[in-house]
Design goal:
alpha/beta; Rossmann fold; 2 domains; two-stranded antiparallel sheet; globular; Alpha/beta hydrolase; hydrolase; signal
Length: 495
């Protein structure tokens, strides 16, 4: 299941481009950087897959502020697996989404789907600035969450989420030297860092694959550096004109539509119970917001429907007072939600969401009552997910200061291959149509499935979409976009 990345992406807030605010395209050329040889060596010890694959790692020095190339610098961690084909094309970078996802090993993870195309590129992974090995930024230790009591109310749960968001904003902005770094945490700066990586590697252009937030990052790169973009694939993107909060809200209706029949009735009954009395499972009490988060992740992929039914069945027994030993699906989710890695990823997501558009232009209401009222209004049409997508208040609502620059207005004719699942309920299909209209040189490949992420699904144990994989590989191998937009039918195994 692609659950971890989605939960880590700001509590399911994956694939968000800085919307609302606009700016003219940036320079086609990157700023002049200090020339220095890259010190290639073994990758960090925890990057077992990279080291086993024979990758090398290095760090690229980039300006903290790209408008001040002679000022303070930070270091971006990169990995490289060299091309093996005599028909080497260049370099291929990638980003796995988030925001907040690290990507040092992500391009390597694409190699099974890339097949022979992998040999034609130097596969370059990188951790975005302030994440992973790239001058990491932390927000200090989060306070131990207060577990839900035996009884609660929707308002009490909401007020607890407001306190948590306010505390995250405070910790991030007051911890260590963060005040100097946070203003430079933005998608535009990650795109500039990508171009600095290209320059450090001595390449004239770069090719790129990005999924979810990584797709939006790729769109920003094409806007800032159109002449440096070679073969670009953007998988599961968003409407570049929408605010982050609007994008989150829009995911409610398609998620609601993914629940059918008995499982819908079971989920609604569980939520009604949890809004009054959290459900005890293995010494934990699961309140309604936590259940909605779990169910939101499970409805993203059709292949997860058996896990969704299993989780609902376990929770029904627990709600009836039975001692439940969670099945693999629920046990895995509970372990993930309690992991320190998730907390770190969610903090990284907040840093970039707020840096891109946490101020009024980013669409995050400042008044908590706005979220509460939207939650309550949404219940009639979206009783399961409406309160989640309308009421999940981000730390950005409490972020102090002003953005250093506005967001990016997308509009160019760079050749791009867009992929989107028609029934994506994380970043809905209409967003890809909106981006397609703005990227006039693009082709849109639609997969007739419910999923988030179309390319290389077999890598995650999901049903692959062969015609999508072929289209991506043909484009990366030969530079040939489909002659027109196309639709891939649902794979036979998923019917």
């Amino acid at each position: 299941m692609r659950v971890a990345s989605a939960v880590a992406a700001g509590l399911g807030l994956a694939g968000l481009l800085a919307g609302g605010a606009v700016a003219a395209p940036g320079p086609a050329e990157p700023p002049k950087l200090p020339s220095s040889a890259l010190g290639w060596g073994r990758c960090p010890a925890d990057q077992k897959e990279l080291n086993e694959a024979g990758a090398q790692c290095a760090k690229v020095t980039v300006p903290l502020d790209h408008a001040d190339p002679g000022g303070r610098t930070i270091r971006i961690a990169i990995s490289r697996i060299k091309a093996r084909s005599p028909e080497r094309r260049g370099i291929l970078l990638s980003n796995p989404g988030g925001p907040g996802g690290t990507g040092l090993a992500h391009t390597l993870a694409l190699r099974p789907a890339l097949e022979d195309v992998a040999d034609r590129y130097d596969l370059i992974g990188f951790d975005p600035r302030f994440l992973g090995e790239s001058t990491p930024l932390t927000c200090g230790a989060a306070p131990r969450p207060v577990p839900p009591g035996p009884t609660t109310t929707p308002r009490a749960d909401f007020d607890a989420s407001v306190r948590a968001a306010r505390d995250t904003a405070r910790r991030c902005q007051e911890h260590g030297g963060n005040a100097d770094l946070l203003p430079h945490a933005s998608t535009r700066n990650v795109a500039r860092d990508m171009d600095a990586i290209r320059a450090a590697l001595g390449e004239r252009k770069l090719s790129y694959y990005g999924v979810s937030y990584g797709a939006d990052l790729g769109a920003v790169y094409t806007q800032l550096f159109p002449r440096r973009a070679d073969r670009v694939v953007l998988d599961s993107s968003t409407d570049p004109a929408a605010t982050q909060y609007e994008l989150f809200q829009r995911s409610g209706a398609p998620a609601e539509a993914a629940l059918d029949g008995q499982v819908r009735d079971d989920v609604r009954a569980l939520l009604r119970r949890a809004e009054q009395r959290p459900i005890p499972v293995k010494g934990q009490r699961l309140n309604a917001p936590l259940l909605r988060m779990i169910f939101k992740q499970l409805v993203q992929h059709e292949e997860n429907d058996p896990q969704l039914k299993s989780v609902a069945a376990d929770l029904k027994k627990a709600a009836a007072g039975e001692e439940v030993e969670p099945g693999p699906a629920l046990a895995g989710l509970l372990e993930l939600l309690a992991s320190p890695e998730l907390e770190s990823s969610m903090t990284g997501g907040a840093i970039f969401m707020c840096g891109d558009g946490g101020w009024p232009a980013g669409g995050w209401p400042k008044n908590p009552e706005t979220y509460w009222q939207n939650m309550q209004r949404s219940r009639a049409a979206q009783p399961v997910f409406g309160p989640y997508v309308n009421g999940m208040i981000a730390p950005c609502a409490f972020w102090r200061g002003e953005p250093r620059e506005p967001g990016t207005r997308i509009g160019n004719d760079v050749p791009v291959l867009l992929l989107q699942a028609r029934h994506d309920n994380n970043v809905p299909y209409e967003g890809a149509l909106a981006l397609h209209r703005r990227l006039t040189g693009s082709r849109l490949l639609t997969a007739d499935i419910r999923a988030h992420g179309v390319y290389g699904r077999g890598n995650d144990g999901l049903t692959p979409v062969p015609c999508a994989d072929r289209a991506v590989n043909t484009y990366l191998r030969d530079g040939k976009l489909p002659a027109a937009d196309l639709t891939c039918p649902k794979p036979e195994a998923a019917r």
